[in-house]
Amino acid sequence: MAVFAVWSCFFAAFLTRCLAVQTSHNVYPVVGVLFVHELNKDYFQEEFLRSQTFYGISYNDGITFSTNLQSFPDRPGWLRYTQRTPFQNGYLYGTPTQADVGRQVIEVNAFNRKTYETVRQKLIFSIQESVGLMLPYQVEFFIKNKDVEEVLLEEVQQDFQVGAESMWNTQRLSVVNITSALDRGGRVPLPIEGRKEGVYIKMGSDVPFSPCLRQFLDPKIQQRCSEQLPLTLHCEDRFSPQYQIIWCNLTLIDNSQPVHPTAGTVPGDGILQDAGEYNPPSESLESRDYYTDYMITTLIPVVLALILLLILIYIMCCRREGLEKREAKTTDIQLFHHHSIQDNTNELRTMANVRDVPRPLSTLPMFNVRTGERMSPLQHQFNYDTSHVPLITAQH
Ligand SMILES: *[C@@H]1O[C@H](CO)[C@@H](O)[C@H](O)[C@H]1NC(C)=O
Ligand SMILES: *[C@@H]1O[C@H](CO)[C@@H](O)[C@H](O)[C@H]1NC(C)=O
């Protein structure tokens, strides 16, 4: 019965895993507006077989993700991916353009760095056109003390938007784009507490810029910025103090005026001027003789190979005798050594026989150094039954 329970448990785990492989999520990005999808680490942790909480244990393994457009090696150009460490959530984010409208399937593969398991998930993107949403006025803020992952969180974006709304005097704002400063040639900060890469946030609206924003178009402010002098602004701290905004890097983009072709350029009729008949160069038709080239490139290696072969044959056939001779000589030397060792041993043996001195007492068996008493090994055995002598004397 217990065996059955365990097996059904494993089967259930296997089944949920299979289902997990097939899970798909629908998401609906809108053209021109920032889209963020969080790859929740805890969700994927639960999908891994190991972390089925059989015994009420929950795991926290490192998980990394790889993402690609279905049947392509990489993501579509508008979609970017970031994950700071394998112990944090991953994010897919980006702003689709008009060309991306339609259905895109993104495959997400989650890798467990501890158990090497993988789980696949499909994200079905239905990219929609922005109906009636025009964002011709755009402002890009540079926040120095944030990483891109931090501002991808929805609550942080909303919090930031409150500050932007108060500067712009409107609530009709959307986040258009978020870019890490590293993507614009920024440097990776030193690993010192509080240093961040920095991030650009672009907000868009159909409401024209407020006077507060328009002051940044003032040449005086730009002059002070280029001279790196402190700015005197009259509406700078509308943001919560956790955002350190570099005001000199604020960019205003005004797309409200349709772009006219500059006057001065005269469109042509689209037909090139007649320049006569085209004569292809005749030289290429001439046939070229490659015989000598062929002979040189093949003959030289063949001759070299033959010479090497002859040298090898000579070494193998004619030099062999010499080798044999050398071997014979080595055997002679070895025999000579052997004989001399034998002679020396015999000599030592005869010398030892001639010597007639008693052996030192200490080399005799059962000699007591202190008493000088000698005992036969047998006698000793009867006096002391060593098996009853304790190895360690009992301590009282
Ligand atoms: C968003 O920012 C990225 C990186 O700077 C850029 O490649 C992309 O074109 C931007 N998208 C839009 C819609 O502005
Ligand atoms: C900020 O703007 C200045 C001047 O336009 C530029 O030199 C600098 O690289 C910008 N800094 C960042 C981090 O974008």
Automatic annotation (TrEMBL):
Is Cell membrane a UniProt keyword of this protein?
yes
Subcellular location field:
Cell membrane, Sarcolemma; Cytoplasm, Cytoskeleton
**One Gene Ontology MF term:** calcium ion binding
GO CC terms, sorted: cytoskeleton; sarcoglycan complex; sarcolemma
This protein's major location comes to: membrane
**Where do transmembrane segments lie in this chain?**
294-317
Task: Provide this UniProt record's keywords sorted from A to Z.
Answer: Cell membrane, Cytoplasm, Cytoskeleton, Glycoprotein, Membrane, Signal, Transmembrane, Transmembrane helix
Q: Which residues form the Dystroglycan-type cadherin-like domain?
A: 26-134
Membrane disposition: Single-pass membrane protein
Position of the signal peptide: 1-20
| InterPro entries xrefs | Cadg, Cadherin-like_sf, Sarcoglycan_alpha/epsilon, Sarcoglycan_C, Sarcoglycan_N
Function noted in UniProt: Component of the sarcoglycan complex, a subcomplex of the dystrophin-glycoprotein complex which forms a link between the F-actin cytoskeleton and the extracellular matrix.
The similarity comment for this entry is: Belongs to the sarcoglycan alpha/epsilon family.
Protein name per Swiss-Prot or TrEMBL: Sarcoglycan alpha
Source organism per entry reads: Latimeria chalumnae
